[in-house]
């Protein structure tokens, strides 16, 4: 027999999945708690029991999406042991978030929260709290093969390049051009490493 805690956890998981789907389909502007309850197949009272206000649900969704990214990134960084593969794996990790299914939902929440100063503060703090462990995980791993300041630069460059392309897809999505850019980016990284006395194995 399931405990009350187990039932509550199951309900929250259903509400999160439904909230993500409604946010993806309708955006922040069209996000309605009634739609979430309908998508989850529960009463609005059940939703309100766990999330009394819409802002509570929005903040929970934002944190949930970022936590998924944190868990994935930390696991990916920890799994890499091959020096020659680490840059590609970091790139894949950045792409999985910024070019994945949830980035624009997160971005929509961040931008739309500007109309609610209190929510905006909580959202931005949650964003910082989430991104820091991700970048730190990759910096820590790369620091095993290069000086830490150099690792920080490579990670910073990588995430900003992928994030920038993700934003550009809002008006122009050119995968071929992006692939070409990544080739040049890898060459730049190798030059940066070589100029700082770091030997890097060929792919």
Helix and strand pattern: HHHHHHHHH
Number of strands: 0
What characterizes the major β-sheet? Answer: none
Give the overall silhouette: elongated
Q: What is the CA-atom radius of gyration, in angstroms?
A: 20 Å
Question: Low-confidence runs (pLDDT<50, min 5 residues)?
Answer: none
- Intertermini distance: 53 Å
Number of helices: 9
Strand content: under 5%
Helix content percent band: over 70%
Give a written overview of the molecule.
With 203 residues, the protein is mainly alpha-helical. It is built from nine helices and no strands. The protein has helices at residues 4-26, 33-40, 44-50, 54-79, 86-98, 103-112, 117-142, 148-168, 175-195. The longest helix has 26 residues, at 54-79. The model has no long low-confidence stretch (mean pLDDT 89).
